Amino acid sequence: MNLNMDMFKYGHERRKYPRKSVSLESRIYSSIKRGSYSCKVKDIGMGGAFISSPFMPRIGEIITFELLTRYYKLITTGNAKVVWLKNQGPLNEHGFGIRFDVLLDDDSFKEL
Asked: Regarding the domain with residue range 5-111, which homologous superfamily does it belong to in the CATH classification?
């Protein structure tokens, strides 16, 4: 597994911003492959998110993302860096963690 275990040092996460569980639609544009991928955002904070997906980008890859409501209304868009992968275990638990280039603004975060 390519999970960055430093994130869980001393039994707690090292995130700067709190996360909340969500079930958001997202569109991911890879910097390496053409086209976009539809994925689900499972949890999100102002600084990053976990994307549930069988598509596995590379750690360090820069992606463009669109966060959408369940009715596909655009909430926000931006760039992010892939910081860890979860590619073992059941396929429905696969995904990757991203760190946003720019923090989500308060209004976008509240809309989630």
From this structure: predicted glycosyltransferase like domains (2.40.10.220)
